[in-house]
Amino acid sequence: MRVGIVGFGLRASLWKHVHQPGQGSEVVMVCDVSERGRSDAAERIPTAAITSSLEELLGAGLDAVLVLTPDNRHAEIAVQTLRAGIPTFCEKPLDVTVEAADSILAAAYESGTRLYVGHNMRHMPVVVQMREVIESGQIGEVKAIWCRHFVGNGGDYYFKDWHAERANTTSLLLQKGAHDIDVIHWLAGGYSTKVSAIGDLAVYGGVTSRRDNSDRRMGDWFSLENWPPTEQTDLNPIIDVEDISMMQMVLDNGALASYQQCHFTPDYWRNYMVIGTKGRMENFGDSPGDLIKVWTSRSQNGFVTPDTEIEIRDGEGGHGGADPLLIAEFLRFAREGGMTETSPIAAREAVAAGVMAAQSLRSGGGALEIPPLPAAWIEYFNAGQPTR
């Protein structure tokens, strides 16, 4: 397969899993508007053609393309690659507005070109194993999910570049939270119909050390020594996104969920608690070797030993082996079609929930409805985008 990449930034590390000459796939072209992106691509993939022209990429006879641009440019690029008939991998979140996300689905639906969204957490062992517990029936029917996201690297990852501006991300509740909102939906087996949220720019707004970091990337400034959060340096000149958010969700199957995100914690991990009609489970750590604990027996002695402990599996590659599995699934889907673990509908619903939660947060915290999708789109994407 001849594969192209648009945008050679932080998520460009996926190229390693695509570029397998002699094993079925090869990155043959990279398109990036920045000189640094083109230079990095030329250094890492010397056999690939490097261009700043999207038109050149669209006419290169590609079998698939990865759209890895900043989030607010996903629709701008993906709509064109889809309408050009190129099976398209779009990095998550799908985009940063409901309208943009829907324009990508519309282009895929109308053109019949295969669309895949890079929600790699659907391949992460901690999430896969928690879903296996749910599907086994051990904890019964899921009625509630609580997710706490301790974003210990938040100051370095999200407040020193374009992520810090609403114009680029809408909110970190959307940009960072799209991962977890999608996981909550997947574990609960439903989508949000109504959301509400509160939040604040509680810490980083008061940091006065600011710098335009457009000449650098996160790897240039990241350090665990950047602590405590109030003493961070060289933050983005504009910061108008929240650094702490709390979101409530009502799902279409009656389940309730909440998502809390904080960008100034000392630790960095996600904690999911899933409560069903027969028990509950919770992950203690989200990396290989950490534990998922399951309680299915009644007790009144406070915190007791779980009935089951499950060690989180390991895998080769980024995110506990999720990244190579993600790319392998995309390439297979681009080639052959069929069902996938990720879902364009789910990706859109995660964006819509995040967008509406951000609106709620900034308008008093009231509950807001999620805009519905056309039934024909839902049927088409849920069927695996069959050839029409």
Automatic annotation (TrEMBL):
It comes from the Bacteria. One of its GO terms (molecular function) is nucleotide binding. Belongs to the Gfo/Idh/MocA family. InterPro entries: Gfo/Idh/MocA-like_OxRdtase_C, Gfo/Idh/MocA-like_OxRdtase_N, Gfo/Idh/MocA_oxidoreduct, NAD(P)-bd_dom_sf. This is Oxidoreductase. The lineage of its organism: Bacteria, Bacillati, Actinomycetota, Actinomycetes, Micrococcales. Residues 131-365 form the Gfo/Idh/MocA-like oxidoreductase C-terminal domain. Residues 1-119 form the Gfo/Idh/MocA-like oxidoreductase N-terminal domain. PANTHER family: CONSERVED EXPRESSED OXIDOREDUCTASE (EUROFUNG), OXIDOREDUCTASE. It comes from Arthrobacter psychrolactophilus. Pfam families: GFO_IDH_MocA, GFO_IDH_MocA_C. Coiled coil: none annotated.
